[in-house]
Design a protein that fits this description.
Elements: H1 2-27, H2 39-57, H3 81-84, H4 91-99, H5 115-124, H6 130-153
Length: about 160
């Protein structure tokens, strides 16, 4: 039982530490040109969008997903992010929104899931080492960057 407790303690300590360490270094460099994505990466990002985002934002990203009407706040039309931002795509802001770790507590809770945490949990699996947490954070960050790049490719002009 003591070994199991140590295992769980290590898991709950290493993942947040790894995520925090990596996210702080990654957040400053989240903007990459979407043109740097390969076709398979774009396909992976589109698949992630369809799995995780389209239920609220719709497959066309216009905010009309099947559960949109059940939410307190209607999901944003993600094809108009650049338009709402004066013609520039705010990649760093979009990254932080998807990551979900930048929400001020004063704003209350968001109905949008914290995808960064989910992606890290998926990547770390059963690993409990700090190196596993760092790798998981890197994998999650890369997935979010690809989602951001994908969203930039679907912007209305």
């Amino acid at each position: 039982m003591n070994l199991r407790l140590r295992y769980l303690s290590a898991l709950f300590l290493s993942v947040p530490l790894g995520v925090a360490a990596y996210a702080s270094s990654a957040s400053a460099t989240t903007t990459e040109a979407p043109h740097s994505m390969t076709s398979p990466q774009l396909a992976e990002a589109a698949e992630d969008f369809n799995i995780y985002c389209s239920v609220c934002h719709g497959r066309d990203a216009k905010g009309n997903g099947p559960v949109a009407k059940e939410l307190k706040t209607p999901p944003a039309d993600l094809t108009r992010i650049s338009v709402r931002s004066g013609g520039e795509f705010p990649a760093d802001d979009v990254f932080r929104t998807i990551e979900g770790l930048d929400m001020p507590l004063a704003h209350g809770t968001s109905e949008m899931p914290i995808w960064g945490a989910l992606f890290v949990r998926q990547a770390v699996g059963e690993g409990v080492l700090i190196e596993d947490a760092k790798t998981a954070a890197r994998v999650a960050t890369d997935r979010i960057k690809r989602l951001v790049d994908y969203l930039e490719t679907i912007q209305e002009k």
